[in-house]
Request: fold
Amino acid sequence: MLNEEVDLFYKALKDTNLLTIEHLTKQYIEKQLSPLVILNEGLIAAMERIGQEFKAQQIWVPEVLLAARNMHRAIEMLKPELIKTKTEPRGKFIIGTVKGDIHDIGKNLVVIMMTGAGYEVTDLGIDVPRERFLEAISQINPDLVGLSALLTTTMLEMENIIKGIREANPSRPKVIIGGAPVTQKFAEKIGADGYAEDAVRAVELANRLLRERS
Ligand code: B12
Reply:
């Protein structure tokens, strides 16, 4: 996508009028552009700029909240396109954003892509404590669990949750983690089975882990 096109998404994310992002997203869907290109090269690239401005204290939480609201709307519009590829049931997946953290745009994208790839997904939402993960795991018996965190402080909670999961059952479920501050190295350090940097790679990782298991 051209720089000027990313500008359009950036401006639409900052617009208080929801119609702006709706019109733009609709226009790009009608152009028959791949929904993943609209998402990654348009919306996520524009959101990254907003993150940088936030970091540099050029904008504040209300503006980021506005961008998040607009991003949610655009993702809702892309959702039918993103999950079109639905295939045979692959396995059960539980996901949540860990305790203390309310960021959910990335997690919701992982939910959409995993659903599209045929996983039966249970979304525990945001600010999810370790006990809630453990309770859901014992009720649902998933093949995979996903933990999301966007803050350097809350990513530490992931280790605590993984310890609880392993204490209950050392071999099942597989645990995958993600979120902007998370790395492969961190995943290895805290005993996760895998890390993925985006929602498409999350599906590839999940498929690989389940193949290796069987
Ligand atoms: C939007 C946003 C918000 C919104 C969130 C709205 C919402 N509903 O999510 C609001 C305004 C609420 C917010 C609040 C705060 N935020 Co904020 N926020 C952001 C921002 C700008 C974008 C995040 C985002 O949605 N990115 C787009 C998505 C698509 O990307 P993603 O989340 O990384 O997800 C992808 C991958 O990481 C991966 N993935 C994600 N989860 C998972 C899970 C699994 C299992 C896998 C495999 C993969 C995976 O796949 C996703 C899709 O491709 C970031 C900046 C940034 N660069 O991340 C700051 C940022 C995360 N926020 C930050 C901060 C500091 C805060 C606040 C503390 C601010 C404050 N003073 O109150 C609060 C924290 C509130 C809390 N307790 O959680 C800092 C964190 C700094 C740090 N080092 O910890 C950041 C980095 C901004 C900055 N540069 O300073 N924020």
Notes: Residues 3-82 form a domain with the Methyltransferase, Methionine Synthase (B12-binding Domains); Chain A, domain 1 fold (CATH 1.10.1240.10). Strands lie at 91-97, 119-123, 144-148, 174-178, 194-195.
